[in-house]
Write the structure tokens for this entry.
Amino acid sequence: MEFLVHGATQYHERGVFFSFEETEKELTANVASLGFNLDDLVERKQIKLEHISVEHGDVSLGGGFDLVGLFIRIQVAIESIHAKRVVLDTIESLFAGLPDPQKLRAELLRLLSWLKRRA
């Protein structure tokens, strides 16, 4: 979160924080103890907070793992505030349903490559 807050306040770079565990309210409350006023930054569209609930049963039910929906959601959030910075927290939660380490590595590389192309 510090990366996004400092980016917004010191470098005028907007950012998006995707949480796979904490809701926006939980996140705002937790970082308030660090002296960060996320509500103000969100209101001024300097930072966008997004909670994404990942249901691991859905991953196995579909017979595969596809990040297209996540890519679209990230893209929409980035474009909504013209973000320069993106944080995915905690990415382990996103990939916890993948038992195959090779598939996990491939999906991580795919996600990072996709993000780099949008930089």
